[in-house]
Structure formats: structure tokens, C-alpha cells
Amino acid sequence: MSVRAVRAWMTPLNVLRAVTYLLGVTFTLYTIYYAYSQFFTQQIRYTNLFLGLGIALFYLHTVLEGQREEGATEGSIRRRIEPLVAVGLAGLAIWSVAYVELHFDRLFYDAPVVGYTTNDLLVGLVLIVLAVDTTRRAFGNTIAAVTLTAVVYAHSLVGPNMPGVFRHTGMSWEQIARDGAIGLTGVYHETLMGIGATWVAIFIMFAGIAKAYGLMDFVLDAGREIGSSLRTGIVQVAVIASMVMGSITGSAAANTATTGSFTIPMLRDQGIRDDFAAAIEAVASAGGQMLPPVMGVAAFLMADIIGVPYVDVIRAGLIPAALFYLSVGVGVHLAVLKFGWTTERTDKFEPRVLLQGLHFAVPLAVLLYTLIVLRYSPLSAGMYTIFTIVGTVALRNLYVDGPSLDTLLATARRTVTGLYRGGVEMAPLVGVLAAMGIIIELLTQTGLAQRVSTLIVGLGGGSLLLVLVLAMLASILFGLGMPTPAAYILVVILVAPGVEAMGIPELTTHMFVFYFAMLSAITPPVAISVAVGSRIAGTSFTRACLQALRIGAPGFAIPFAFVANDGLIQWSFPETVVAFPLVLAGTVALIVATVGYDGRRSLGSLRRTLYGVASFGAMFGVVVHPALQIGAGVAVVVALAVSNSSTPSRFRVSARN
What we know:
Layout: H1 3-9, H2 12-37, H3 43-70, H4 77-102, H5 104-114, H6 118-139, H7 141-154, H8 173-182, H9 192-212, H10 215-228, H11 235-249, H12 252-269, H13 274-287, H14 298-306, H15 310-338, H16 352-355, H17 361-373, H18 378-401, H19 405-446, H20 448-460, H21 464-479, H22 484-494, H23 496-500, H24 506-519, H25 528-537, H26 541-551, H27 553-564, H28 575-595, H29 605-620, H30 626-645
Keywords: Membrane, Transmembrane, Transmembrane helix
Protein name: TRAP transporter permease
Domain TRAP C4-dicarboxylate transport system permease DctM subunit: 135-569
């Protein structure tokens, strides 16, 4: 390349692209390197550099996305200044973590005893500001406002003047800077950022690499092929695709935006009404957060907080996830049949489509083997899975395309692109994990977390059901507008101790509050997942929310069901074997009642009420007597069998209803 060509290429925007790309690849490679050398590297030092790289990458990528959306740099003064501000903040992030790295030994060993300098405290405040700002840019104002509220609430000017349970002695700005960041707590929170920078990051980055290799395209192609052979068309495939991708992303809104941009138009093309299409995608995307083995990255956080093996969390999440997705699958199936949205013609399924993605099964097998059989940590398992997918795809390309330099170069380009995408997809989570660390540290220091739990128990008046309802409401409230991992951490700190105080096992309690934090994504008035889906579908947010609540209704009952039937979480024989089919029958009956269709005919108010009563009996009858639960479950199965064996009704409800 000539000097003139180099000069022509080196525009500010091109240089920014190159720097961002290099930073994204470095971010992923740094994480993989730590996974390889973790026994020789102090985690807190690794976390510090991870924080700086992630925040800087987020800012730079945001600038590039803004330029791509605008198409040019022309525009208002704000549009011209905003990229410069973001680049400056990226540099500030690198400078801040470099300061911590240069003074690490003093900050880690000496400063907690002899005190922090003014420069230390200023850097701490800068890190807090960066965490809040990146969270605002990535996830909106809600969680950023919560973080700022926690900072203001902790200050000595506010805390002592608060009423009742919210009153505390207050903290100075120096204490906030220390506990919020520079004391290597807060944004460096051992659980949040510690797990986020290792277990969470390695799986998010694996997902980015897998997408670059065509995993998303394979899922959608396979979905279209399967959908063409089913009477209900693409609808079940949309549910499964959203479920799988949602388990990895950790954000219901991001999953709805990503998979929904493909699935919602396909659902509409099949004739499914706009509000139902948005609701199906929103519910499936939100529910993906509960699907093992990743569970929207919350499984890693849960295992570390409770102090149990990661495999135990996976096992505890299997049956509840199966209950939720089976009920959602039944719900959308009944809705398609009820409104006559079935496909006119079905084609024979072509299995060759699945063979095109057979190589993706190899890294999945390695992941499950290393996690479940070898009991490796998620970080190590994720590392070996990344190595496996890179090697498998390279061999597959050499076999399919033939051994040549072009094949090697094409594979190398996609690998580097995957490394970049993995870093870019992890970067937004860095800020929100740092912000949540600040919230948890300050709320713990002020004592609010302990007092809220005591308040919930007090308001419950000794009634387990009332305490669970209060915990449900608090979990949904604290989770509104937040990504699932952040919502889970917040409700665990504030709500879970109150439920545990009623004698509920710790793992069951965590699963309970986690489910409702996850369901906040489809719960009005925020319902962030539904909001994204309705925008893609071009339909009413209110109508989409109503349909989402219908389809996702069993999700609000399942957490209560596994509290009543502890065998669903704590596996045992014969409790688990008996409880699972009975509770499944209950969830199916509940979806029949909410959709108002049993597979053959639309139901009137009386039949819907009877199905609703039977569903509660099958899910919660064990609290009164096991015979009641068994009787209700059998009644549901018999009623559905009799109804679907009778002559089908020719009546179909108009799709406009």
C-alpha cells in the first residue's frame, strides 16, 4: 500500500474503527488468557484491567454505532460533540484502571490501614461515574437512576434525615468513594465483577464466536425447515430459538431485539396477529434466562453466592425451566389453533438442514462433559469450549471447502470477527455489573438490605404465603427495566433473606426471587421485553402485554409451585417423580384457562374457571393433602383427553377477536 493510500485511509473514523476492533479482540483474548493462567494471576488485578478494557470498548463501539446510524458526522452540535465525549471517557477509563494498577499494592495492602490519598478518592469517584454512565447508555435510565439513588441515599446529608426503616448514620463522600470503588470493592465487587469478569464473560464471548461461525443462521434455517413441516408453522421454532439464545445473552430485551428481528416478521407472515407475535417473542426471550446450563449468566452468580456446586444450580433449574417452556409451548400452540393461524400446506422435513450444523454439537458436548462430568469451573469449561469450537470449525471448513490458503484465511477472518463480537457483546455488561456492585456495597454498608428483609417478614405476620407474595411483588418491582443478572443480584440482597427466615431452603429461595426478577421483563408497566417486541411488530404495547401475561401466566405460578413441592428443586425419590407430572398438568390447565381453548373448542367462563381451579389443585394441593393434588392432576389429564378425543368443533374464533 502506498504512502498516499495509507494517508487517505487514516481518517479519524477509520482509525477509530481499527482501534475499537483491536480492543475488542484484545478484550476477548485477555479473558481467555486469564482462564488459561488463572492460577498464576491475582484475580483482583485481572478484574481491574478487565473493567477498563470493557468500559473503553463499550464507549468506542457506541461511537461507531452512532456514526453508522447517522450515516455521517454532520448534524447538530450535540451529535458532533457526543462522539468526542465518548472517546474521552474511554481514555478516562483506561487512565483510571492504569492508576489502580500502578498503585495496586498500596491500595490492596497499605491504604485500608494508613488511609487513602485525595487522588485515590478522586479516581474512585471517576470509576463510580463511569459505571453509572455506561449503565445509562447500555440499559437506559432505570438502573442508572437506582445507582445514583443508592449513592445519594448513602450520603450523610440524606441518610440521617430519612424516615423509619430507611434512616442510617450516613457516609461521607470519601467513604462512598472508598467503598464504591477505590477500596477495591463496589465496582470491584468480589461476586458481581469477580464472577462477571470470569464465568459470565467466557460464555458471552463464546456466544459471540459461535454467532460469527454461523450459529444464529443455523438456528434460523433449521427453524424455518422445521416450521414448514408443522401445522402450527414457525411459532414453536421461534419459542425454541429465543429460549436458547436468551439463556446465553442475560438480557431479555437484547434477546427480543436480536431474535425478534427475525422471528416476529416470520410469525406475522404466517398470519399471526401482531400483538401475539410480539408477546410470543417477549415471553420466550424472557424465559430463556431460566434455561440451564447458563440461565442468563445468573446460574454462575447463584452458585457463587450460595456457595454450592454449579451443577447443583443447573439441576435445580431443569424442572422449573421444563415446566415453563412446556406450558409456553402449549400456550402458543393452542393460540394458533384457536385463531386459525395454522399453515395451509406443510412440507416434508428435510433432515439435511440439521446436518449442516452438526459441528456445533461438538463444543456443546465438550461444555456439558467438562461442567457435569469433570466438574471443571465454568471459566475452565468455557475456555475448553472456545478452543473446541475454533478447532471444530477449522476442521469442518477444511473438509467442506477443501484445504487451501483461501479456506484458512476465511476461517481466520471469521475467528477474529468472533473474538471481536464476543468482546463487544460482553462490554455493556461490564458497566452494569460495576453499577450493581456499587448498589450492593452501599446498601449493605447503610444496613438497608437487612432492614428490608426484616420488614418483609414483619409485614407477613408469620404467614408464609403473604411473605412469598410480598417477595414476589418486591422482586418484580426491583427488576423492572433491569437486565436479569442485575435484577437477580438486587432482589437476592434485599428480598431473599426475608424468605429464608420463613424456613425456605436457600437454593429454593434464590430460584423463587430469580424467577420473578426475570418475569419483570414481561410485567407492566415497564415490561421491557414486551416493549421491544411490540416496537418490532408495530403493535400496541398494552395489547402485547395482555397477550404476554396470558401466555406467560404459568410462569407466575411455577415459583410458588416449587416452594410447595420442594422435590422440583431438591431432587428426591419418589417426590420429584410424582410432583413433576402433576405440576405440569397444573400448568397446562392454567394455560388452557387463560387462552380459553382446550385444543378442540373455545371455552366458556365456567369451563375456564374449572380448569383454573383444577390447575391450582394440581400445583398446590400437596399443601392440603397429596390425594388432592393427585386427584386434580388426574382430572386435568382426563378432561383434556376426553375433549380432544371427541368430534372437533368446526368453529374457529376470528383472528380479530
